[in-house]
Design a protein that fits this description.
This protein has 208 residues and is mainly beta. The protein contains 1 helix and 15 strands; from the N terminus they run βββββββαββββββββ.
Length: 208
């Protein structure tokens, strides 16, 4: 994702739980780089591409105003939607979802952990993420649109007016197209979803 002339990149934890909390590893992070590949001077850690840490497997990134939202896989529980903030720790592998399990609260307090806006257990395998605020499909206005793999659906995540909370969710096309990998919006306001089933995959247009 490109924002403010910078490229933001999500990386998985590379199946090594030592990586996400290691600031010298690029795995389990959101990275921020200049378009020429150099390190921005205002990144939170000197001479480091890392923008935020403690991620397991962030799949989608989208900018909404001055905020960046991510969709992220949990392990066997606690898939998440997060607001990505400069220098924040998102907890993995010490924290799954909210800071609500025994032993999590102290880690969250000591490490400035950002809790998700919403989480899902059982897991749904969230994938691509888009923001919709067009009049073409009014019911989608001011919503995140989430492509879901395991849950085989498109999910609407309605935002509040400040775009800091998810106020409601609604499912579309459940088990209709199988695994949905990503979602995007055209300039005129149509929505396109791409399936990820391994065979007979489709790009589906959603119009009025």
């Amino acid at each position: 994702m490109i924002s403010g002339g910078k490229l933001f990149i999500s990386t998985g934890d590379a199946s090594d739980t030592a990586n996400p909390q290691n600031i010298n590893s690029l795995a389990g992070k959101i990275l921020r780089i200049n378009l020429d590949g150099s390190i921005p001077a205002d990144n939170p850690y000197p001479n480091n591409l890392v923008w935020s840490l403690g991620h397991r497997n962030a799949q989608g990134l989208v900018q909404v105003g001055n905020k960046i939202f991510s969709s992220e896989h949990g392990p066997d529980s606690d898939d998440e939607i997060n607001i990505i903030e400069k220098g924040r720790n998102y907890g993995w592998p010490n924290i799954k979802g909210f800071c609500n399990e025994s032993g999590e609260q102290s880690f969250c307090s000591l490490n400035n952990v950002a809790e998700p806006l919403i989480n899902w257990t059982p897991t749904i395998a969230p994938s691509g993420l888009a923001y919709y605020n067009n009049d073409y499909i009014p019911q989608f206005k001011n919503s995140l649109l989430l492509a879901v793999l395991k849950g085989t659906k498109l999910m609407q995540l309605k935002l509040d007016d400040t775009q800091t909370k998810i106020t409601a969710t609604k499912d579309f096309y459940v088990n209709t197209y199988g695994r949905i990998r990503t979602v995007c919006q055209s300039p005129e306001g149509k929505v396109y979803i791409c399936t990820s089933n391994g065979s007979d995959d489709k790009i589906v247009e959603i119009a009025k």
